[in-house]
């Protein structure tokens, strides 16, 4: 009867792992996000201007944010790299042999890169963004997936509403490199002809012929969906995400609570109220919101006093979410950085080494925060105009989602007090406006110092600490 | 604008001091948005033996657990109340005018109760469980909903696989009160003819044309395929996600706590200590137990606290660590004994006994917070097959309450002793539970309801909108035989026939939990 292996706690992430001969044995897997063992190949399907690239990019952004390494492979981009100048829609005529050869080469090149990403570079999900409108093309890709041990999931976008298609063309096609030297009318006409080239050979995913494939068919920009044979957790999450996103224009406002008493003292965490300047900010925020004249604005706060006090000044209904609470600093709650350096110098150094994965003892990491905030992001996708009054670390996580920032960049995003960030979806991304509401506040942003060594002297650890009382 | 706030004593929620009416403006939620203001009627659609009642009950259990007051209204039960003796399938024949009248009356009676539940009894969602196979009947329900300002969401189950239909009949129809006095063969034959009666006039939902504007999900072939149309709001989106994740494959879920820990022995709560000697013995016993269970592809999940991981290590199998499975955070009371808590924080100590479900430790969590945190675990458990979850007392109580349909009131007092494995097997409309003590002594960490708590929660305590309820009893119950009454508290989800065949199982469950 052997006793259980000894456990050691990884100093950065505070994960308990078994070790033998003094070295951690990689045996247990901490569950950040459930990941399938097989990589997944997502294959977009649909006529041009049906939102395939929009969906690819958004989905990729979401999956990367929740920690699933994902990359999109846009075959049109490969074509633009190969055929330096785009002349006209005639390139896409079904009987243009030269065009067909090039397009096939591009698809193959993209698939080679997919294989490298999924089988050699540690990618988990690849999004193959092309029209893939014929059954023959899809069978080729499916076989490619099978040969390499990938699960294949098709995402088809079907839309016949001419207004939607016209709007898509205006949003993202007119600005394409293909039409850089064209007038808008010219470009639109050419693009409509381009779509025609695909129509005759378009074979939509079929209830009978494709009954053994895993896929989601999105109809009319999300009015209805057909979902077939979802195989695993990641496909189920992808379906849920796709069913929650929409394209209705709206704005998301992110800001922190007004300056708090602990902010003034340079202390982290805790649950204090607003300073006098913080209260000023709350009033300015009320004025700002009023001036923006926003239709049906939802206001969300955390359950900490400082965000709620801020919301109270707005005089409108708001909802409190516990998951919007600031990152839990565990044993370091309510300390200044100087005190952390004094009492926990090792922890302080580890944090600087890998701020995203670092978990405070008995507290949380940014990585934990992202997990916690996922339902907020999902609900933000469902909603229209929303103001989220939250905290520095929380705001960095949300911002990283909207602006597609990496785990390395996330913990250092600048989210100063008394500044509202207005995010408006546009084309394939997000327009960002930063509005400082003209009420002074302390700076709480601490940059990564040069020396992150655990043996560094205190001055070098504290060199980037912002001023405080 | 004073912005003066005070923190509620029980739930530690910050609210304004000036006595504005609080609830309509402020919603306190751990995660998940505002409940829709309009109540929703979920309308099941489908031929008999297509899993409508199965989905109704399961969905209702899930919605209640996440805090959305939901109730099932099964028209068949209304019919059984009115028509005391079921004769045969001919009752359902479309030409049987007398019967058609009765059946319509029953549907109307059920709708009246739906109206009462949603308008006056605080219900948020009513599940109207009937075949609803004709456009005419569905139009009637749509009109009813429109008059009352209810949202409507249709769930249709379509299945033409004869083996699935036959298996459903075996699982839940043969033991129905309708066939109490029949043999299995007789019952099966009659039920097949009953289905034929509906088939003639069945008009499936048609989202491409006639039903373009309805909000609906069509579940095809037991979840192989789904058609979703016009999801209106958050709750419908959750319902769709849930339905897409559940399955009917037979499987077993094992729940247990870590082995006895050093802190357990000292009577200290929380913390992150390792196993005691007896705790280690338990892990070894657990390993042996699992080998004997001879399971196919068992997944093992632990929390990220040392004691559950040490327990899993002894199993010599791969396991996954979930932070979401960590024990309830006792905040400032972490690592204290109950005596120390009583001495240092007497008010907190008393508050917790008054309302253990809603009570949040200062800078810590409540059971209510735990439910929110555990929802993704439940969702993934639904997707999985055989799973062993090694967790903690409060966490295990929350998970168990989901599987056994226990209310917020009961949840914090469910018995989850150390060194005891609970084996859950889905059966018919519910869950069979077996309790297996692995014969390694351990301290008892269970605290009964205090005298104070037995008086019931203080009515002045403000509630958060998230309140798990056990799914309410069906409004019209079938005739109750004496055995059912005896096991009523644990058998709301068990079909009426089961106790007769396996008399000890529900009692075991009852003994272990209350």
Largest sheet composition of chain A: 6 strands, mixed
CATH class of the largest domain in chain B: Alpha Beta
- Class from helix and strand fractions of chain B: alpha/beta
Biggest sheet, spatial arrangement of strands of chain A: 6-7-5-8-9-10
CATH superfamily of the largest domain in chain A: Phosphoglycerate mutase-like
Distance between the termini of chain B: 50 Å
Rounded mean pLDDT of chain A is 94
Helix content of chain B: 25-40%
The number of helical elements of chain A comes to 15
Tell me the domain tally of chain A.
2
Your description of this structure?
The complex is a heterodimer of chains A (469) and B (514). Chain A is of the alpha/beta class. Chain A has 2 domains: 205 residues, 3-Layer(aba) Sandwich (Rossmann fold); 211 residues, Phosphoglycerate mutase-like (Rossmann fold, 3-Layer(aba) Sandwich), CATH 3.40.50. Chain A contains 15 helices and 16 strands. In chain A, α10 links the parallel β12 and β13. The model of chain A has no long low-confidence stretch (mean pLDDT 94). In chain B, α10 links the parallel β11 and β12. In chain B, α2 crosses α3, α5 crosses α6 and α13 crosses α14. Chain B has a 6-stranded mixed beta sheet, sandwiched between helices. The longest helix of chain B has 24 residues. With 514 residues, chain B is of the alpha/beta class. Chain B starts with a strand and ends with a helix. Classes of the chains: A alpha/beta (469), B alpha/beta (514). β10 of chain A pairs antiparallel with β9 of chain B. Chain A: GO terms for molecular function: 6-phosphofructo-2-kinase activity; ATP binding; fructose-2,6-bisphosphate 2-phosphatase activity. Chain A: It comes from Phascolarctos cinereus. Chain A: In the C-terminal section; belongs to the phosphoglycerate mutase family. Chain A: One of its GO terms (biological process) is fructose metabolic process.
């Amino acid at each position: 009867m052997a006793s259980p292996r000894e456990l050691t706690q990884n100093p950065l992430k505070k994960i308990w792992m078994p070790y033998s001969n003094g070295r951690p044995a990689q045996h247990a897997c901490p569950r950040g996000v459930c990941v399938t063992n097989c990589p997944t190949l997502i294959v977009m399907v649909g006529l041009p201007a049906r939102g395939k690239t929009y969906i690819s990019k958004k989905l990729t952004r979401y999956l990367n944010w929740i920690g699933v390494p994902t990359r999109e492979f846009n075959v049109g981009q490969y074509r633009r790299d190969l055929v330096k100048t785009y002349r006209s829609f005639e390139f896409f005529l079904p009987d243009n042999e030269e065009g067909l050869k090039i397009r096939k080469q591009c698809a193959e090149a993209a698939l080679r890169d997919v294989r490298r990403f999924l089988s050699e570079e540690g990618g988990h999900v690849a999004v193959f963004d092309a029209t893939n409108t014929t059954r023959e093309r899809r069978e080729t890709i499916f076989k490619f997936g099978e040969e390499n041990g990938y699960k294949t999931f098709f995402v088809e976008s079907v839309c016949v509403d001419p207004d939607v298609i016209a709007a898509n063309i205006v949003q993202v096609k007119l600005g394409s490199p293909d039409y850089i030297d064209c007038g808008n009318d010219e470009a639109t006409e050419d693009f409509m002809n381009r779509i025609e080239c695909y129509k005759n050979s378009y074979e939509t995913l079929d209830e009978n012929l494709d009954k053994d494939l895993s896929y989601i068919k999105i109809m009319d920009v999300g009015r209805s969906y057909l979902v077939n044979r979802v195989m695993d957790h990641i496909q189920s999450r992808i379906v849920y995400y796709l069913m929650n996103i929409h394209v209705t224009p709206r704005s998301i406002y992110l800001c922190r609570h007004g300056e708090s008493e602990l902010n003034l003292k340079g202390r982290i965490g805790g649950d204090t109220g607003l300073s006098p300047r913080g209260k000023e900010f709350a009033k300015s925020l009320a004025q700002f919101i009023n001036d923006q004249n926003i239709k049906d604005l939802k206001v969300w706060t955390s359950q900490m006093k400082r965000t709620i006090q801020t919301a109270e000044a707005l005089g409108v209904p708001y909802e409190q979410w516990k998951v919007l609470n600031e990152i839990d600093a565990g044993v370091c709650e309510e300390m200044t950085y100087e005190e952390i350096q004094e009492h926990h110098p090792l922890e302080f150094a580890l944090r600087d080494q890998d701020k995203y994965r670092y978990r405070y003892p008995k507290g949380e990491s940014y990585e934990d925060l992202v997990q916690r905030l996922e339902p907020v992001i999902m609900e933000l996708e469902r909603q229209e105009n929303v103001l989220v009054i939250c905290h520095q670390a929380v705001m960095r996580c949300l911002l990283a989602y909207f602006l597609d920032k990496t785990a390395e960049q996330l913990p250092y995003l600048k989210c100063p007090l008394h500044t509202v960030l207005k995010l408006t979806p546009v084309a394939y991304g997000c327009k960002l406006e930063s509005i400082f509401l003209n009420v002074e506040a302390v700076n709480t942003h601490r940059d990564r110092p040069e020396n992150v060594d655990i043996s560094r002297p205190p001055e070098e650890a504290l060199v980037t600490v912002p001023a405080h009382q | 604008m004073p912005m003066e706030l005070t923190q509620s004593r029980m739930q530690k929620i910050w609210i304004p001091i000036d006595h504005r009416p609080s609830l309509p403006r402020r919603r306190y939620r751990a995660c998940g948005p505002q409940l829709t203001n309009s109540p929703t009627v979920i309308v099941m659609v489908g031929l008999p033996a297509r899993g409508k009642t199965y989905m109704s009950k399961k969905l209702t259990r899930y919605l209640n657990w996440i805090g959305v007051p939901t109730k099932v209204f099964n028209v068949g039960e209304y019919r059984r109340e009115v028509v005391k003796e079921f004769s045969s399938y001919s009752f359902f024949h479309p030409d049987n005018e007398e019967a058609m009248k009765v059946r319509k009356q029953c549907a109307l009676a059920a709708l009246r109760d739906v109206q009462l539940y949603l308008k006056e009894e605080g219900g948020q969602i009513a599940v109207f469980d009937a075949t609803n196979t004709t456009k005419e009947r569905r139009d009637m329900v749509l009109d009813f909903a429109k008059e009352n300002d209810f949202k409507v969401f249709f769930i249709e189950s379509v299945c033409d696989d004869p083996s699935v239909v036959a298996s459903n009949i075996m699982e839940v129809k043969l033991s129905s009160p309708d066939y109490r006095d029949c043999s299995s063969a007789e019952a099966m034959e009659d039920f097949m003819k009953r289905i034929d009666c509906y088939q003639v006039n069945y008009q499936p939902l048609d989202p491409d044309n006639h039903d373009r504007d309805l909000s609906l999900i069509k579940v095809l072939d037991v979840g192989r395929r789904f058609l979703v149309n016009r999801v209106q709001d958050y709750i419908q989106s959750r319902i769709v996600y849930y339905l897409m994740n559940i399955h009917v494959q037979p499987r077993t879920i094992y729940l247990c706590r870590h082995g006895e820990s050093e802190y357990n022995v000292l009577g200290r709560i929380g913390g992150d200590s390792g196993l005691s000697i007896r705790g280690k013995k338990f892990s070894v016993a657990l390993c042996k137990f699992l080998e004997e269970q001879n399971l196919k592809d068992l997944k093992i999940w632990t929390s990220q606290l040392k004691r559950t991981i040490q327990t899993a290590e002894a199993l010599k199998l791969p396991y996954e660590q979930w932070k979401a499975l960590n024990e309830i955070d006792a905040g400032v009371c972490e690592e204290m004994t109950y005596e120390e808590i009583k001495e240092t924080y007497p008010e907190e100590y008393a508050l917790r006994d008054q309302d253990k479900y809603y009570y949040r430790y200062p800078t810590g969590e409540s059971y209510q917070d735990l439910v929110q945190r555990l929802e993704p675990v439940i969702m993934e458990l639904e997707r999985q097959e055989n799973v062993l979850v090694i967790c903690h007392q409060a966490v295990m109580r929350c998970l168990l309450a989901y599987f056994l349909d226990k209310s917020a009131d009961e949840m914090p007092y469910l018995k989850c002793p150390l060194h005891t494995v609970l084996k859950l097997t889905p059966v018919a409309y519910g869950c069979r539970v077996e309790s297996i003590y692995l014969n390694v002594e351990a301290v008892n960490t269970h605290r009964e309801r205090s005298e104070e708590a037995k008086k019931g929660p203080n009515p002045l305590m403000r509630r958060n909108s998230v309140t798990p309820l056990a799914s309410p009893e069906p409004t019209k119950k079938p005739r109750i035989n004496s055995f059912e009454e005896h096991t009523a508290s644990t058998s709301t989800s068990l079909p009426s026939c089961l106790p007769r065949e396996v008399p000890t199982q529900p009692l075991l469950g009852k003994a272990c939990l209350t």
